[in-house]
Amino acid sequence: MLDHVKTYKERTSSYTIQWSTRGDSGLQTSYFRAKNVLEALDKLFYDRDPNSITVFSVLLNPIS
User: Which residues pair with 14 in a beta bridge?
Assistant: First the structure.
């Protein structure tokens, strides 16, 4: 378990996703840690109807 915690940040990247729901004019911003872009989008769509969300951008955040 300790190994997992120590290497978690090395195995994942930080993503910023900008999106809105259908019929809503406001833009939402969400942040996720994921192995790749598809995993970040899976996290965004978790327990949501994929047809009700429009994704405007997915950004890989710089490593600090």
Answer: 33
Alpha-carbon span 55 to 23, nearest angstrom:
14
Domain 2-60: assigned CATH number: 3.10.20
Helix (H/G/I), strand (E/B), else coil: 20: strand
The upper half-sphere exposure of residue 49, i.e. CA atoms within 13 Å in the direction of its Cβ, equals 4
pLDDT by residue (tens digit) across 25-60? 899 999 999 999 999 999 999 999 999 999 999 999
Whole-angstrom Cα distance, residue 19 to residue 27?
A: 6
50: nearest Cα among 58, 41, 59: 41
d(Cα 62, Cα 48) in Å, to the nearest integer?
28
State how far the Cα of 7 lies from the Cα of 21, in Å rounded to an integer.
35
